[in-house]
Amino acid sequence: MARINEHFLKLQAGYLFPEIGRRVQAFAAEHPDKAGQIIRCGIGDVTEPLPSAAIEAMHKAVDDLATHENFHGYGPEQGYAWLRETIAQNAYAAHGIRVSADEIFISDGAKCDMGNILDIFGPDNSIAVPDPVYPVYVDTNVMNGNTGNIQEDGTYEGLVYLPCTPENNFVPDIPKEKVDLIYLCFPNNPTGAVARRNDLIKWVEYALANDAIILYDGAYEAFITDPLIPRSIFDIPGARRCAIEFRSFSKQGGFTGVRCGYVVIPQELTGKDGQGNRVPVSQLWARRHSTKFNGASYIVQRGAAALFTEQGLLETHTLISHYLGNASLLASACRQVGLRVWGGENAPYIWVECPKGTSSWEMFDKMLKEALVVITPGAGFGSMGEGFFRISAFNTRDNVNEVCRRIHKLFA
Ligand SMILES: *Cc1c(COP(=O)(O)O)cnc(C)c1O
User: Domain Aminotransferase class I/classII large spans what residues (predicted)?
Assistant: First the structure.
């Protein structure tokens, strides 16, 4: 008999986006005349074509594979040196942050990396996650057996939830208890919140004092426009001894369908074995990577590297400005009708408080039925998300303008 991993059975059955899909479909079936007018501001996927620098580089990379001279088979598991060097230079050194190319591990995306990283950590860690949360952090820990069962309020036994509320500007306070692994994500999905330097200093000090490791999700780094906001956890002194950073080209370059990301693990970062000996974490990740992964596609890595050329940087900037412009329009529309809004300034999401007495799913239904706009109910991201909803700025400008008009009409 083949025994399954029973931890999977503890997972809440893929609740949020399937439920949204079900409600949208049911409404569209009942109102076929309106179905075509529904605008989706729910899922965080990009809408705009890729920067032409990336397209041209990938076309050329395909042609490389057509000749003996330029053919590429298996590449290095950690990624091509030219991409790792380019990232070290442009994503870090250019911002005054010290990360060397051999501390960068290229992958096919940050979601996989965030799940896979648990391979290199032991079973008895105490783990803290923000609430509301990007569900991947929670579900991968459930699968790995790092939690107990789900409870009445949707939280899992054994995880430490860090409340993110208007009071703390959606930047979690350090916990009273000692934890070993901490997930942080800034700019944040779903709240669009950013962490200031002082916020991150507190977390790094906490991690160093408690011998903890911060798993820092920087997927939305490219949306930071305020020069005072740290672009990387490694901009904070001491972070090289207590943090791993996850980055992705998905939101930076519109690569959600192309697939490329990377992990940064500083040489200094260590964890403890059962005898209390310190072991470099990057050694374990390098071993895992070369055993379970055969490298991201050559074509895709060429496309990613092209995002850092002069043309690529310019086009990426245009792309990000487009989405940030959308976010700004959506945020103003919500404010004009009296809603409280967070995020949207250094992030492609705005986080909106539901009108008093309206739950986040009631708000979802109201927006769908009366405005034909799909949003994401905050409750789907965790118990602290109740009473809020997320509007994604990943859309065309025409759609965003139309959503703004409908928000005005709905609350007029
Ligand atoms: C989109 C996103 C990612 C990136 O995932 P990829 O697998 O690289 O596409 C990572 N973290 C968060 C919070 C995200 O929203």
Answer: 42-407
pLDDT in tens, 239-268: 999 999 999 999 999 999 999 999 999 999
Domain encompassing residue 207: 54-309
What is the pLDDT averaged over residues 144-169? 96
- How far is Cα of residue 330 from the mean position of the Cα atoms in its chain? 21
Do 92 and 222 lie in one domain? The reply is yes
Distance CA 156, CA 336 (A): 38
Mutating to test ligand 1, I would choose from 194, 217, 392 the residue with most ligand atoms within 8 A of its C-beta, which is 217
- Do 131 and 88 fall into the same domain? yes
pLDDT at 328 over 80: yes
> Would you say residue 357 lies in a domain?
yes
Report the DSSP pairing between strands 349-353 and 341-343: antiparallel
Distance from Cα 262 to the centre of ligand 1, integer Å:
11
pLDDT at 14: 65
- Write the DSSP string, 292-312: H-----HHHHHHHHHTTSHHH
CA distance 382 to 288: 31
